[in-house]
Design goal:
heterodimer; A: 107 residues; alpha/beta; Transcription Regulator spoIIAA; B: 871 residues; Rossmann fold; six-stranded parallel beta sheet
């Protein structure tokens, strides 16, 4: 059986700096170029607001529809705790957690 | 899709939207610092104070209940007073520290709170709950009473905007909009999986629904406040306070007075004062009219249309002919109080009263009211007699018992007293709640306890005065003593020891002797000796003999000094000395001088005493058993036959080895145990060769005492547990019984345990290393092997130690197995289950470095039978 041909995809690594208070245009632009896997580095992200959370969730949705994969890396524990309490499954999956449909946000 | 299912879907979406906002805000809130939170709380409080009047007016206009001016006060209590109480409280991170307990508390928010606001307090409740939620980093979804939704929701909006401007997360406060579907939306929210807590303040129905949701809920219960006016009360002040309280917001406050219980001695004065201050005292006929109006004849409950209405309106509607303005209606509740229609909660300025003739009757009548639908809520008392207040508080079941102040404003907390400010009155189980608290911020935090490992205090105690060289028996010449009682054995007197003691005691000292102490005394024997001592009234007990005599003398002295003690009570087992339930006396009255004539138990310096109890041995352990003086004079051991010399030396050897590896061992006991070991290995062979050589007898005698000090503080281990069981069952001398297990238990304890011992003072299992150290300390060595680990080398040293023990035993003709003790195999094997049970419950096993499982105990017994080869 022949090996499936692997598409070569670009991997963009982006660092989120400081407080994530709203959507980040640069990151949106990278996604818009298509065929890109994105790694969001949270090592320097110190705070995340409700708008920031909503943007991340929506960003993941868009990436999914564009078949781009998004990975969150180096998430610091205060922000990781926000993801945990938020009960948003897509955020947890981006952090590498298995899907927890049964416990996901039901609203 | 039908209209109703379409509507239901819409409501579900609405509920989901509210919860989603709250959920995200709750997540974001977890990042907030105390400073950020306090800034938000401050801004919200300021906004509430600024809008207190406006909100009160709105509430009154919307509900047509209560009094606007009083609602302003409630709004201010819910903001200004609350703020004063909580502003400096920590609600983020470490909230409390308990340095003595080595523990801290850390706050975790509860998350999304669904909160109800009642019609009686539509705005103050919202202010109160919003500020509490901000302080605790929770988010809140409000559901107002339909009849008060506009004012409640406006209050929520004001609080939210102020919070948001101060940096609170978006969506931190939300509310269910006023609509005919408000009730249904609330139901959906109550059972919504993303709601973490229901904070239910409202009618019984809503509280019940909250509890039925299956979620954690903070509820409230119904009230029915009895207030007792005792004859000692300041009557005029009481009258004014009661009027203030009962008319507050036209009686809508649920802690407010419902029925007064008045001592006859002050009833006339009190009622006259009420009248003078503008209250109406109803006649019996008027009471009937008022009852007919305010009580729903079908349900027996209150007519809700009259809640919070002014007294004149009620009087008019009841058909009372009152023209002048009145503050409230006072109704005598004549006849059987428990059946009186008005003996219930009346959230309006209608107050019942009864007159009583004693404190007992007063409390009983108050209980009648309290238990007529108000358990757990509030009660009041006006009284200057602390005993009566205490009796009242003891009897009445109420979360807050307000003394000498208005019950309603008093119940709110912070104004008349130091209760927590609240708009939510926990009623405990009496009202179907989990707490009787004035519910507040502390009920809205998940407190995480962070206990550090406890600091374990290890101490060292031993006999205070020890005379340690050959000839030191001469110390008796200068012993401070008027009357001595010598306890000894026949062999000691035979060997001349008794005479050596009596001839050295001061001339003027009266001496009595009990020389019949057997080898294994029981409690009956102890009682005999105590009885003998009662005759001679000694100030000093001199114990002269081996371990049994010394142990017996310790117990004799204890019961002589404290005859009220019960042996069954002080012999209770314990897991940890620091926590044991029994208490021994602190000070002993009679001096105890211990003079050992064998070199074995070390009893002269230990806080232990063992007593025979049938086939078992019971151990007493306490510092008060320590002798005051020990005389370690090796001359007394010179006539000891070789077998007893060997037996007792093997007891001392076992003490040293077990204390060394004990979980309670310390640097102090280690030093003693190691030196005791070294002395035994050095002096026992020499002593056996040369029994009269006092130099080696002296070393051996000291070794036993040093090992005694070690076990006196570190205790022993599994070997002793096995030996105690065996010795009691087959009458084997203690030292011999120890020797029979020694090779097995060293091997057993040097292996990595199948189960570790859980005791805080033993953080690291080191038994193997300690045995290796003991081997080196007594001069044993192993040839180095290249590349060998320390652990492997250690095990070779342990092996060497076991060889040395074997060689010493052979030299001293000490048995190293059960077979050598002459016990038939079958008898022994049949006894193992019983032996195992006894050994397993022996206190000695508790300090063994390896957690000794019952099957392992049985195995140790079984393995000990066959005679040993040299390891
Ligand atoms: Fe012993």
């Amino acid at each position: 059986m022949a090996e499936p041909t692997k598409e070569t995809r670009k991997l963009e690594k982006i660092r989120i700096l400081g407080e994530l208070e709203r959507g980040l245009d640069d990151v949106d632009k990278v996604l818009a170029t298509g065929k890109t896997d994105i790694e969001l580095d949270f090592s320097a992200c110190t705070f995340i607001s409700v708008d920031g959370l909503e943007w991340l969730e929506e960003f993941l949705l868009r990436a999914d529809s564009l078949k781009s994969s998004v990975k969150f890396v180096n998430v610091q524990s205060p922000v990781y705790k926000v993801f945990k309490v938020a009960h948003i499954d897509s955020l947890m999956r981006a952090c590498g957690s298995p899907s927890q449909d049964a416990q996901g946000l039901v609203c | 899709m039908t209209v109703s299912s379409e509507q239901e879907l819409m409501l579900t979406q609405r509920a989901n939207h509210l919860v989603r906002q709250a959920r995200l805000a709750a997540a974001v809130f977890t990042q907030y610092s105390q400073e950020k939170v306090d800034k938000i709380v401050r801004a919200m409080t300021a906004a509430a104070i600024e809008n207190a009047g406006k909100l009160a007016l709105m509430a009154h206009q919307e509900t047509r209940m209560g009094v606007t001016e009083d609602k302003i006060l409630k709004n201010l209590v819910a903001s200004e007073f609350l703020y004063h109480q909580i502003k400096d409280k920590r609600s983020v991170g470490v909230t409390r520290e308990f340095p003595d307990l080595n523990m801290v508390e850390v706050a975790e928010p509860m998350g999304v709170i669904f909160a109800l606001a009642p019609v009686t307090n539509p705005t103050s409740t919202v202010i109160f709950k919003s500020i509490c939620c901000a302080k605790t980093r929770n988010t809140v979804i409000f559901s107002a009473h339909l009849m008060a939704a506009e004012s409640s929701n406006y209050a929520a909006k004001i609080m939210y905007e102020a919070a948001l401007a101060a940096g609170a997360p978006k969506g931190f406060i939300t509310w269910v909009d006023k609509s005919s579907r408000l009730r249904r939306t609330s139901e959906l929210l109550m059972s919504h999986p993303e709601v973490d807590l229901i904070f239910a303040t409202g009618g019984t129905q809503m509280v019940k629904a909250a509890y039925s949701s299956g979620k954690p809920a903070l509820g409230v219960g119904p009230g029915n406040t009895p207030v007792y006016v005792h004859k000692s009360a300041n009557v005029l002040s009481a009258a004014m306070d009661i009027i203030i309280s009962k008319t507050f917001d036209n009686g809508t406050e649920c802690p407010s007075e419902q029925t007064l219980v008045i001592d006859r001695e002050v009833s006339e004065q009190l009622l006259n004062e009420f009248k003078r201050l503008g209250c109406h005292l109803c006649t019996q006929e008027e009471v009937e009219k008022v009852s007919d109006l305010i009580i729903d004849s079908r349900s027996g409950g209150i007519n809700y249309k009259l809640v919070g209405q002014p007294a004149n309106l009620i009087a008019d509607q009841a058909g009372l002919n009152i023209t002048q303005p009145i503050k409230m209606l006072l109704c005598p509740l004549n006849g059987e109080l428990r059946h009186h229609k008005l003996a219930i909660e009346k959230l309006m300025p209608v107050l019942g009263y009864v007159i009583v003739d004693s404190v007992n009757e007063g409390i009983n009548k108050a209980l009648d009211i309290n238990y007529a639908g108000g358990t757990g809520h509030t009660a009041g008392i006006f009284c200057e007699d602390d005993d009566v207040i205490e009796r009242f508080s003891d009897a009445i079941n109420a979360g807050r018992i307000i003394v000498n102040s208005p019950a309603s404003i008093g119940g709110l907390g912070g104004v008349y007293n130091h209760l927590n400010t609240t708009l939510s009155f926990g009623c405990g189980t009496g009202g179907g709640n989990i707490t009787t608290d004035n519910v507040g911020i502390k009920n809205l935090i998940n407190f995480k306890r962070v206990p550090r490992r406890r600091n374990y205090v290890i101490s060292f105690q031993t006999t205070k005065n020890i005379y340690i060289n050959p000839g030191s028996i001469d110390h008796l010449k200068s012993l401070k003593c008027q009357s001595a009682f010598i306890i000894t054995s026949r062999s000691a007197s035979r060997r001349g020891h008794l005479a050596q003691v009596t001839e050295r005691l001061p001339q003027d000292c009266h001496v009595d002797v009990f020389s019949d102490m057997g080898p294994e005394p029981d409690f009956a024997m102890i009682q005999r000796v105590v009885a003998a001592m009662r005759h001679s009234q000694p100030d000093t007990v001199i114990a002269l003999g081996g371990g049994s005599v010394l142990d017996a003398a310790k117990i004799v002295r204890l019961f002589y000094d404290y005859p009220e003690l019960k042996i069954s009570e002080i012999a209770v087992n314990f897991l940890d000395f620091h926590h044991r339930m029994i208490e021994f006396p602190k000070d002993m009255k009679t001096q105890l001088v211990a003079i050992p004539t064998t070199s074995g138990t070390g009893s002269e310096v230990t806080p232990f005493a063992v007593l025979k109890d049938g086939h078992r041995k019971i151990s007493l352990i306490d510092e008060c058993l320590l002798p005051d003086v020990a005389i370690i004079d090796a001359h007394l051991t010179r006539s000891l036959p070789p077998d007893i010399t060997g037996d007792t030396a093997f007891d001392a050897l076992t003490h040293a080895l077990e204390a060394l590896v004990s979980t309670f061992s310390s640097d102090y006991t280690d030093g003693l145990a190691l030196e005791a070991l070294r002395l035994i290995f050095e002096s026992l062979p020499e002593t056996l060769k040369n029994p009269n050589n006092v130099l080696y007898r002296h070393k051996l005698h000291n070794a036993a005492t040093l090992a005694g000090m070690a076990i006196g503080n570190a205790s022993v281990g599994v070997n002793h547990a096995l030996a105690h069981a065996l010795g009691a069952r087959f009458d084997i001398p203690h030292g011999r019984a120890n020797g029979a297990f020694l090779l097995s238990t060293i091997e057993y304890n040097a292996q990595i345990p199948s189960k570790f011992v859980s005791i805080p003072c033993y953080p690291l299992w080191v038994a193997d290393r300690k045995y290796a150290r003991a081997a080196q300390f007594i001069g044993l060595t192993v040839e180095p092997i290249e590349g060998e680990t320390e652990e492997a080398k250690g095990l070779r040293l342990v092996h060497k130690l076991r060889q040395a023990v074997y060689d010493l035993a052979k030299l001293a003709k000490q048995p190293l197995s059960i077979a050598e003790l002459g016990i038939p195999l079958e008898t022994y094997m049949a006894a193992i289950p019983e032996l195992t049970e006894i050994a397993f419950s022996d206190m000695s096993i508790r300090t063994n470095p390896r957690y000794t499982l019952a099957p392992e105990v049985a195995q140790l017994f079984a393995n000990a039978y066959t005679p040993r080869e040299r390891p």
